[in-house]
Amino acid sequence: MTDGTALTRAVYPGSFDPPTYGHLDVIERASRCFGEIIVAVVVNPQKRDPMFDLETREAMLTQCVAHLPNVRVEHFRGLLADYVKAKSADVIVKGLRVVSDFENEMSTALMNRALSKIDTMFLMSDQKYSFVSSSMVKEVYFLGGDVAALVPEPVLRVMAARRSEIHAS
Ligand code: PNS
Q1: For the segment 89-125, what is each residue's pLDDT rounded down to a tens digit?
Q2: Does the annotation mark 134 as catalytic?
Q3: What are the strands, taking DSSP E only, across the chain?
Q4: What is the band of 5 on the pLDDT scale with cuts at 50, 70, 90?
Q5: Average pLDDT rounded to a whole number, residues 124-137
Q6: What is the pLDDT of residues 7-44, one digit of tens each?
Q7: For this structure, is 47 an active site residue?
Q8: Cα–Cα 20 to 30 A to 58, which of 49, 51, 71, 118?
Q9: What is residue 27's DSSP assignment?
Q10: Is the Cβ atom of 62 under 6 angstroms away from ligand 1?
C-alpha cells in the first residue's frame, strides 16, 4: 500500500506495561489517520522485569481497543524492524507526550528506518495525559494511589487482581 490513502497499515509498538489512557488516546488518533493499525506489544530490552507478561498486556489492550474496528493487537519478541517488514507495514507510529520524548524517539526512528526503510510518524497525545507514564501509574497504584483516571477499566481490573495477589503472598 503506497498511495498514502486510508488503506495505510501502521504498527504502533510499545511496552504497554500497563496500557494507559495516553496510549489509548494515541491509538484512537492513529485509527482515524490510517486504514489499519497493529498495536504491537514488544519486549523492551532496556526495561527489565515487566510487571505484566506479554500475553497479559496483549489481552488488556485487546479489550481496550474493542470499539475500534481497524485496530488489532499482537505481541512479538525481537527486532521491531524485522517485525514491521514481516507485516508489510507502511509506517511505524509512536506517541509523544512532551518534547523530551522526542530525543530518544528520533534516534530510534532513524535506526528503524535504516534497518527497515519504514518511516516513523509521531502523534501527540492529548495534553491532559502529558504526565502519564506506565512506570508512574504502577508506582502510584502499588503505593495505594488512585489511578482510575489514568488507565482504562480493563487495565484497572488486572491491576487490582495483581495487587490482591501481592498482598495475599
Ligand atoms: O513503550 P516503550 O518501552 O517506550 O517502547 C519501546 C519499544 C518497545 C517500541 C522499543 O524498545 C522497540 O522497538 N523494541 C524492540 C527491539 C528493537 O527493535 N530495538 C531497536 C529499536 S531502535
Answers
A1: 999 999 999 999 999 999 999 999 999 999 999 999 9
A2: yes
A3: 9-14, 36-42, 71-76, 91-96, 119-124
A4: low
A5: 96
A6: 799 999 999 999 999 999 999 999 999 999 999 999 88
A7: yes
A8: 118
A9: H
A10: no
Please tell me the distance from the alpha carbon of residue 134 to that of residue 124, in angstroms, as a whole number: 17
Is the C-beta atom of 133 inside 6 A of ligand 1? no
94 is catalytic: no
Q: Are the C-beta atoms of residues 54 and 73 closer than 8 Å to each other?
A: no
Side chain identity at residue 21, one-letter code: Y
- Is the per-residue pLDDT at 3 higher than 70? no
For ligand 1, mutation pick of 43, 73, 108, 132 (most atoms within 8 Å of CB) = 108
Those residues with Cβ within 8 angstroms of residue 20's Cβ, 6 or more apart along the chain or in another chain: 129, 132, 133, 134, 137, 150, 151, 152, 155
HSE at residue 57, side-chain half, CA atoms within 13 A, is 23
Interval 59-84 mean pLDDT = 97
| 45: its cell numbers | 530490552
On the question of a cis peptide bond just before residue 13, with omega within 30 degrees of 0, the verdict is no
